[in-house]
Design goal:
With 515 residues, this protein is of the alpha+beta class. It folds into 3 domains: 198 residues, no CATH class; 185 residues, no CATH class; 98 residues, no CATH class. The chain has 17 helices and 11 strands. The strands form 3 sheets. It has a 5-stranded antiparallel sheet with strand order 7-11-8-9-10. A 4-stranded mixed sheet has the order 1-5-4-3. β3 and β4 form a beta hairpin. The protein is globular, with a radius of gyration of 32 Å. The relative contact order is 0.09. The N terminus is likely disordered.
Length: 515
């Protein structure tokens, strides 16, 4: 590559008038330094010189003059030398689309090597390095018998950049890794594109124009689902926390525990199970996130959570969600002293119904993008109109990622959804053994584990082991025999102890937990 570039420079020098002075000798090719072309121009110039040299060799029938850094292979894709079309650069908007950048683009292996590569040693080292891979998948090794194929665009010429390639692609930041295609871009246009991208990145990082916290008052969220049987729909908002003796149900009765959470007439088993799991493993998190104010309202402080695609988990953003929650709760006219949803009468503590109401009101802090997304999902499921809000939203049920988000909101720690293992691992453990060990390890580390049961099969009336179908449970224990213990958020009708095989056969193949 260096030889071709120098030949090109000498050819330009011969166009100058002869001089008595010492002939000008260009300094070593160092793109971007004073007096030298930019790296992009150097790449393009080197490529043109190589193509011209290759054409001359083809005309002379000589193929022995190939640069030593080139792989002695036959390309699977035809390059410009063979009459194929010159690869064109993608539009800037396509470079910002994760779906497009995720797909490896191909490039003919015959052509100039990167001028940054000083010799063949680095080329040989790259032949055996691992490709950057999507999190959660095994990296792909490049073997000798694969070197004659197209080079994946995900492979960078700088090994230090390879580990960050997926994160850069998924976020839409950074330049394409296909150096030949970058060289074909107009430099000025490329600089404009880079400047625009830097502005967008700076805008994301600069939160000065965003509120430092999300604050709302949660008074009376929607609670009457028009599609539900009226028998199970509360009649109105009431004050069930106020006792007949003039006192109020205390916010806490000792340390928060899972037994102080009890699902009511709302279909939010996942929310209640998550609240109970956090209370059991991290009672301090529950105490820290809710307090009673002198005005009779409750102050709830949650952690804003955002899903990280590269990390495949929910991470706290660092921005708090501060909610002022009024004490009014939905009730039935026949039982005005008992909350219709999360129960406080039997548990003796008010924190669970207050936090349930706060979670119902978090959609008041959503931006337009998230509200629109919720409506699109709602419509895709065959439902007309806008997505429900408040308690009605919770009544539609939750999925594993909803529960992971709530774990992060309550604890301020990353949370994830883990697929059940399949096959044997490198330690020779079966999938059953792996799952049992994983869950036991999470529980021993004070990390809640939540699972959902499967739907009923055709002609199946009930699930075994007293399990309720399409219901969420907290895993509370893996005993010495390897059996699984579950807690029902109803605070009653807990399932029977079951083997790991019975557990897997009747739950969805994934669980929610803290990182």
């Amino acid at each position: 590559m260096e030889d071709n570039t120098k030949t090109d420079n000498r050819a330009e020098a011969t166009d100058k008038p002869a001089s008595q002075e010492r002939p000008y000798t260009p300094p070593p090719d160092n793109p971007g330094s004073p007096g030298q072309p930019s790296r992009l121009k150097s790449l393009a110039r080197a490529r043109e010189a190589q193509q011209a040299g290759a054409a001359q060799r083809i005309e002379a029938g000589d193929t022995s003059g190939e640069p030593s850094g080139e792989r002695d292979t036959t390309p699977t894709a035809q390059g410009p030398e063979s009459g194929g079309e010159e690869p064109q650069a993608d539009d800037e908007q396509h470079a910002d689309e994760p779906g497009d950048n995720d797909r490896p683009t191909t490039q003919a292996s015959e052509g100039p090597t990167d001028p940054r590569t000083p010799g063949t040693d680095r080329q040989q080292a790259q032949d055996h390095k691992a490709l950057p891979h999507r999190p959660g998948t095994e990296p792909t090794e490049i073997s000798d018998d694969q070197t004659d194929g197209p080079r994946p665009a995900a492979e960078t010429d700088n090994p230090d950049e390879a580990s960050d390639d997926w994160e850069r692609r998924i976020s839409g930041e950074g330049l394409p890794d296909d150096n030949a295609r970058v060289a074909d871009l107009d430099e000025e246009a490329l600089q404009r594109g880079v400047a625009d991208r830097l502005k967008r990145v700076a805008a994301r990082l600069d939160r000065s124009d965003q509120p430092k916290e999300l604050a709302e008052t949660v008074d009376r969220p929607d609670f009457q689902d028009p599609t539900e049987d009226p028998e199970y729909v509360p009649d109105r908002y009431g004050t069930p926390l106020e006792r007949r003796d003039g006192t109020r149900t205390p916010l806490f009765d000792g340390e928060p525990t899972r037994e102080q959470t009890e699902q009511g007439a709302l279909g939010d088993c996942g929310i209640i199970a998550t609240l109970g799991a956090v209370a059991e493993h991290h009672p301090e998190a529950i105490r820290d996130c809710v307090r009673e104010g002198e005005d009779g309202n409750y102050q709830v402080r949650l952690h804003e959570a955002k899903y990280s695609i590269p990390n495949r988990r929910y991470d706290p953003t660092g921005r708090p969600i501060k909610l002022t929650v009024t004490p009014d709760l939905p009730v039935f006219d026949q039982r005005p002293d008992t909350p219709a949803f999360a129960n406080s009468t039997s548990t003796g503590a008010a924190w669970a119904p207050i936090l349930e109401k706060a979670v119902a009101g978090t959609d008041q802090t959503w931006n337009d993008e998230r509200q629109d997304k919720a409506t699109r999902i709602w419509n895709a499921r065959g439902n007309p109109g806008a997505a429900p809000t408040g308690y009605v939203r919770l009544h539609q049920g939750s999925n594993e990622r909803d529960r992971a988000e709530l774990l992060t909101q309550l604890t301020g720690r990353p949370a994830k959804v883990v697929e059940f293992p399949t096959g044997y691992d490198n330690q020779g453990r079966s999938a059953d053994r792996q799952l049992r060990d994983e869950i036991a390890g999470q529980l021993s580390g004070n990390k809640p584990v939540l699972v959902g049961t499967r739907k009923l099969n055709k002609n199946e009336l009930v699930l075994p082991k007293k399990l309720v179908d399409s219901h969420v449970y907290e895993v509370t224990k893996v005993d010495d025999k390897g059996n699984i213990h579950l807690h029902n958020p109803w605070n009653r009708r807990h399932p029977e102890v079951m083997s790991i095989q019975e557990f897997k056969a009747n739950t969805r193949p994934r669980y929610t937990t803290l990182e």
